[in-house]
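Agenda item 2: GDP-alpha-D-glucose complex prediction
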Amino acid sequence: MPLVVLANREPVRRVGGGYQVAVGGLAAALYPAIRRLGGAWIAWGPGGQGGRIELEGLTVHRVPLSERRVAGYYRGYANQALWPLMHLFLERFRHRSGWWRDYRAVNRAFAEAALAAGGEGAAYWVHDYHLALAPALLRERGARRVGVFWHVPWPPLEVLAVLPEAEALVRGLLGADLVGFHTEDYAERFREAARRLAGAEVRGGALFHRGRRVRVGAFPIGVDVAGLEAARTRLVERARAIRAEHPGRRILVGADRLDYTKGILERLRAYRRFLTRRPEMAGRVVFLQLTSPSREGVPAYRGLRARLLRLAGALERRFPGAFVHRYQALDREELLAHFAAAELALVTPLRDGMNLVAMEYALVSQGLPLLSRFAGAAAYLPGVLLVNPYDEAGLAAAIGEGLAMPPAERRARRQALLAAVRRLDAAAWAAGFLEALG
Ligand code: GDG
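Presented output:
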């Protein structure tokens, strides 16, 4: 039975003249399962290109999208309407009917490409908020086994109702046999939306809609546990070099895509408060904030970048040596080496579907993450220091607490945390979802 994955991003990166499966992301999590079953991956072709890429056990089909479609579907509907709404940022919500037309057209193009690749008896696995309509489109055109995984939060109905197409979105997802979320809270809110907006009936954990059963549940994603544990020894030397760049200072790290959901500005302000209240620490710690550029075509992100660079620059000048901002995409090894070098990670999103950084950090470092209670991961990771990223004073105090924690307590917390992170393995997540899909 071939498996057809539909996801906005293609699962490959260019290496020399050819392509390899990208490490660390969704692609790496799914590749073992796809290779076993044989399959295809439908994705947006960069630069508007179509065509195919052949890898072992996997064919990538690129959906060609014109610049106009990308503007409406991706920069518009997906990232200015759905993304802020799903993360409860109502004031950032923007909407245009033209964007919705592009979103629908692109979902149709993905569904058609998937059906052409899948053939008789294929199973389809749709990913994320870019493709909410694809499950119903696949089903209407004859697909019989369809799963969808929603990587971002699902909001309460009052917030969802702001979206003029809320009902169509829910009906799109109800085309699946299995709808997965990171947490049971998100799943429960989706059931409520399906009941109220699409007239679905809720029985047990499942929904009944147009004579079909749609299962809805929590499938918490994880990281590549074996790969990260194996990386530890490789990272030792580079981590040591990073520590040597900051002699006499204890290292804190933060790493995020540039996004207003990640709470980077709030984190920097809390750190500023920490240093202001505890001036003796300014010579003993350094906070390395690593921010990778993201969604630069979306106006809100350009504004955020300007504010972040201003605030970061001011901190670097005011506390020389105690704060460093790097605004660039780091290669994965370099990122992980920074994790390994740090004894505390500040993982403080204002809202996050799950958040993988806290888990990666736990596996490659000796330290503990401060983790936002508004990340899905907070429901699964014992041992972390839970924080409210909106509470500047509380976050500043938690930084102090994390630095002052007795080694025995840190060890005990890490033990609980590592046991949980190991259970949330990425490949096991993919296999578990596919098994539930049947
Ligand atoms: C979405 C949901 C959910 C970061 N900077 C660099 C870099 N990273 C890597 C991290 C991590 C990944 O990017 C980010 O994953 P997150 O889970 O933290 O966040 P999103 O990108 O928003 O992902 C999220 C996820 O989907 C999975 O379902 O957990 O809630 O929003 O792996 O390490 N990687 C490299 N250079 C960087 O500069 N190489």
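Discussion summary: The chain has a mean pLDDT of 96.
Owner for follow-up: CH.
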